[in-house]
Amino acid sequence: MTSAFRTLTVPLDAETFPGGLPSFLVRDDVLCWTRREAGLVGFGEVARFTATGPERFLEADIWWRHLVLEADVTDSVRCPGTGPVAFGSFAFSKVSTHRSRLIVPEIVVGVRDGRSWLTQLTFDDGELTQAGALATLERWLSGAEDADALAADASGAVLSVGDRPGGGMTVEPVADVVPKLETGSLSEQDWMAAVSAGVAEIRTGKLEKLVLARDIVATLPDGVNAAEILRQLAVRYRECWTYGVDGLVGSTPEMLIQVEGRTAQARVLAGTLDRRDADGMAGSPLEFAERVLAGSEKQRHEHEIAIQSLTTQLAPFSEAMNAHSEPFILELPNVWHLASDVKAELTEVEGHVPTCLALINALHPTAAVCGTPTSVAGALIRKLEHMDRGPYAGPVGWLDAAGNGEWGIALRGAVIEAPDTVRLYAGCGIVEGSHPEAELAETWAKFRPMLESLGIKS
Fold first, then answer.
1. Which residues pair with 268 in a beta bridge?
2. Which of 444, 458, 383, 388 is nearest to 179 (CA)?
3. Are 121 and 105 in contact (CB under 8 A)?
């Protein structure tokens, strides 16, 4: 007989980790969702749910609600992200073979609005105590230190073979081995041809917008250090949400849906400009971005399509909604975006406030990552991209037992496929005025955060 699901949440002294949550990104198997030193970091796994197909969000929602319904919860902090928590990553496509997942960690560190906490989650019968939770956290953190020590020992063993001063044999240092970068499913020329084909379809009137993605594969002879990738992203891209779930890593600027009580919020992006394009231009860089993005009919049209896609799907769940009448310029280290924030007060549907997974089921995929109409765009994506996006551009984030959650769109990210191999993804919104060469250049601007975090110059 399975024991009951139990959780204990206790306050944590934030002064013991002045670097915020990024200071806990020390293991390659860490689960994380962080922004501006706040968020959630998880270690271990006590339960997992996986699903494929068009009902994956609703099936996950049913599993989670059943799991937490009779959970024994002790929570002295009581804020979004305390108590039972699961991290999740979902496939972009309803026809993908990639398994969407919810993962319940063994231990979670949370930071929010100046408060910090520790949650232990278990199915064991033993007593849950603050001392026990702290000991469990220490066990996971000390395990990371042990792994670092083993790596250092291994490095020393390589150096002792003969490339130390005075050694008889010259061995090229591992650090000098150059990472290899290769195109993925389509070559650059083939992908640009796909963009041209997409523009031709748009001109027939079958659809207004299409989002086409491409992949590249990086091979790192030194091996992939997921924890270092996440630390780099969390520090460089503080205005984005850095995520790590089961080998999916990245830092997204786009919030699909954030739910706190009855309030739902989203950040919609469409319209991109590489910051390198401002080099040598007159005026300040931000003035250049406003002129090129906000002053572009093509960029404004693409952005308006994305906003309408979200608000139309969110409306049936809302009793009030507001969005920026004018998009703002979101400034990131690699690019500028046209961005809009949407806020909605949720209404009861069939007697209860919709859960974040129910909202995701209605919202995904948005025009920002698929196109419009989504059914036409989705079919064309499958025809032109020649790849399964897997979790790329799918929802990624967390949820708690109270219905709160934060779910971004898995952009500016990659999937770690092997100890030395990472597959990176980037996509562009294609409209009638799109040019293949410019869209290709935009993908390289969007690859840059991951390439930098891997130590690869772009």
1. 340
2. 458
3. yes
> What domain range includes position 153?
6-158
Q: Does 251 lie in the same domain as 111?
A: no
Catalytic residues: 209, 254
Measured from the Cβ of residue 308, the count of other Cβ atoms closer than 10 Å reads 16
The pair of three-digit structure tokens given for residue 97, joined into one six-digit string:
């073979």
> What's at 75, amino acid-wise?
D
Of 269, 330, 331, whose CA–CA distance to 302 is shortest? 269
pLDDT digits (tens, 9 = 90+) for 68-93: 998 999 999 999 999 999 999 999 99
Q: pTM to 2 decimals?
A: 0.89
The residue among 410, 421, 436, 394 whose CA lies nearest residue 184 is 421
Cis peptide upstream of residue 365 (ω within 30 degrees of 0): yes
What CATH number is attached to the domain comprising 271?
3.60.120.10
Tens-digit pLDDT profile for residues 217-272: 999 999 999 999 999 999 999 999 999 999 999 999 999 999 999 999 999 887 78
Report DSSP state, residue 226: H
Q: Are strands 115-122 and 107-112 parallel, antiparallel or unpaired?
A: antiparallel
